[in-house]
Amino acid sequence: MTTETATGHSAAASSSAVNPPVELEPVPMATEEAPSQPRGLGRRILGIVGGLGYRIVDNMSFVGEVLVDFLDLDKPAYHKEIEDLKKQKKKLAKAKELKEAEEIASIEAPVLAVS
Questions:
Q1: pTM higher than 0.70, yes or no?
Q2: Other CB atoms closer than 10 Å to residue 81's CB: what's the count?
Q3: Which residues does residue 4 pair with via DSSP β-bridges, in sequence order?
Q4: How confident is the model over 57-93, as pLDDT tens digits?
């Protein structure tokens, strides 16, 4: 199906004459490298032993951290005493606040007149 333009040429013929198809050649990438050669047996064994050693040391480190935390070895020797003092101060402050609240309540309490 072709349509004629004002000059008498068909639209299909004029579009192919104006825009010829372009063919591009593939450009090799600069980052492409040759496939790496397979590693030797010695390299593989060394990689396995190194990976195994890393996992063992990593797990030992984790167990050590857990033990230090569980046994409270990362806290000073007087840590318990400090915690006890903090609890005692908190208890005293609460008792003082309660006493003050009772005093205020006794002042504000209505006095019933006996008639």
A1: no
A2: 10
A3: 10
A4: 999 999 999 999 999 888 888 888 999 999 999 999 9
